[in-house]
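Hey L., structure's done. Input below.
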Amino acid sequence: MDSTVQEIFIAIQGGDANLVKEKVQTALDRDIDPSQILNTGMIAAMAVVGERFEKGEYFVPEMLIAARAMQQGLVILKPHLQQADLVSEGKVVIGTVKGDLHDIGKNLVSMMLEGAGFELLDLGTDVPTEKFIEAVQQNEVNVVAMSALLTTTMPQMKTIIGALIEAGMRDQVKVIVGGAPLTESFAQEIGADGYAADASRAVKVTKSLLG
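Output:
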């Protein structure tokens, strides 16, 4: 691994956003291939972060800090990636369902998916059904990811899946759901394709559904 890319890889794991930005710029100035910076420096680093989280070596704050550092680097890298015609892993539309204003879990999933090479369309919180449907209609979306932290808003997820069926788009997308009160059996009950208990799992589930 190139030494500057190695420094990006280490800085992301340590959550050092300023160093990540500096080293991404250095790597670009040195004409290192943008896709190498992304894959070897960033995506590989976030994979390590996900593994450490699963082993209980990292917790949510460490994951958030690492993901934010990665995102800061992505801001600098993105214009160069677009020029390099980088193939994305897939496009994900994500949002917290109507009536629910919780966004920490959703933001973390969003950052982890972006760190794994997916294109993200984040609709925010309190997202009505129509907005999810519109996003799928207007973009070539592969995955719809929904979050809920309140038991009272969980039924919204079933409503959205029903609306996708009604619009004739259910077969075009995979649906994953997550949030503290959710369970695997609830996900199956409402007809979702996958359930993720945390952000690291969300990446794995999304990859396996599209794989």
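Residues 95 and 123 are 5 Å apart (CA to CA). The longest strand covers residues 91-96.

-- N.
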